[in-house]
Amino acid sequence: MRNLFHFDELDLYVWEGKADVLDRIARCMASFDVEVIRADGIPLPQDRSSTRVALAIISVTVIDGGGLPLASEVVQGMPVIWVAAATRERDSRNYPPEYLHILPFDFTCAELRTLVTKLVQQIRANGAKPEKPDVLVANSECMQALLAEVAAFADCDHNVLVHGETGVGKERIAQQLHAGHGQYGKGPFVAVNCGAIPDGLFESLFFGHAKGSFTGAVHAHKGYFEQATGGTLFLDEIGDLPRYQQVKLLRVLEDNTVTRLGSTVAIKLDFRLVAATNRDLRDLVQQEEFRSDLFYRLAVIELHVPTLEERGAIDKIAIFKAIMTSVMGTQPPPNPPDLPYWLTDAIADMYFPGNVRQLRNLAERVGVIVRQTGTWDQPLIQRALSLARSSTPTPESMAADGSARKNWNAGERNRIIAALEASEWKRQETAQYLGISRKVLWEKMRKYQIVDGEPGIPEAS
Ligand SMILES: Nc1ncnc2c1ncn2[C@@H]1O[C@H](COP(=O)(O)OP(=O)(O)OP(=O)(O)O)[C@@H](O)[C@H]1O
Ligand SMILES: [Mg+2]
Fold first, then answer.
1. Is residue 14 part of a domain?
2. What's the sign of the alpha-carbon dihedral 362, 363, 367, 373?
3. Each residue of 184-194: pLDDT tens digit?
4. What number of other Cβ atoms are within 10 A of residue 200's Cβ?
5. CB under 5 Å of ion ligand 2: residues
6. Ligand 1 center to 431 CA (angstroms)
7. Which of 38, 197, 257, 382 has the largest count of CB atoms under 10 Å?
8. 130-175 pLDDT, tens per residue?
């Protein structure tokens, strides 16, 4: 049941299945002179004036009913107040962390009004509607466990290192850590790709520079460290930072101050540091490509983001549906609205070395087909699936492609092949030798496309 309140310059959308909660919201907002408009079954207005402030109140039970993507789509980027399921001792893992405003089910009028007023003030102060939050799908057990770790470590000041294969959502996890920090979560989130710092520009980009400090320095410029003040500095692809830049970074972190080029004033660092990598930093430390002192400084807390294969069909299909829903927008769903079995089977069986990013691309392509045709057009969708399968790199093509090779865990693949060869391809023995279960071995062989008896590829250098 959806209801729509009007009040002054505020549109308050309420999406709540329980009549008593609805009544309570209506009563609490009565003194705000809110006009209640029943909006059951009618589409929410698309032409909302951009100058009007809009806010939504949604019950978390819509998440349990699989309605989160739908609800997020309907509210179209409005800030959302979630009414939590039952108790005040709630388990925050059950709620999407990007929605920070949660009211307990037994909220008081004062709590509701305070939250509404605070959000309205925030929106007016920003002069803009906040960005539409992206849905973070995490239905699998391993993702639930990761989100529990994120919730546990978000509000502390220790440095965090996030690792996981390419496209698994490391940056999304870094954003969750940022959003969950009581103090720094309110500040900026400054993301820096450490694999793309041009030679000779490290100091200028990270430290900033004073006006006139070099030819062309017309204005003073804040470096990344200063830009992140009061927020989170996210150092992405940290494993790609060359050694000579690693030492500069380490020095600043040890001093806890930074000095702009051409200045003598030391500025104290004040941010939360999160780094991410798709490379095995411990391996890099052993190969002396990564400084061990910097590694230990960054990896006070380590979080591992599982691959899409590890998450399994439950997440593959949920992510696919969430993306489809957002591509469909306000278009009526096809008939029947649920994904046909041949499509869910195909997605569940497909291997995505590019992880969530690759799955997103496929879901967007299929979403466009369904939106344009209004049906689950099997021939067109099968074409999109075949295309995605044929563009999936094989180990050989990745080994031949230097840029992609770093993303391919060739080391692990070769270790598995060596163990298989040593045991004459007996899986039980191999699994025992590697200290993993037969099921995990089978999954890894599938993931790395290891066919019985094939020779290993050379170790990545
Ligand atoms: N759990 C999730 N649910 C829905 N979308 C997700 C999820 N995780 C990641 N995504 C989406 O997948 C894409 C890749 O995520 P992200 O950039 O965080 O991955 P990454 O691990 O940092 O990738 P890379 O290794 O290439 O830097 C983004 O579009 C992101 O919004
Ligand atoms: Mg990334």
1. yes
2. positive
3. 999 999 998 88
4. 7
5. 171, 236
6. 31
7. 197
8. 444 467 899 999 999 999 999 999 999 999 999 999 899 999 999 9
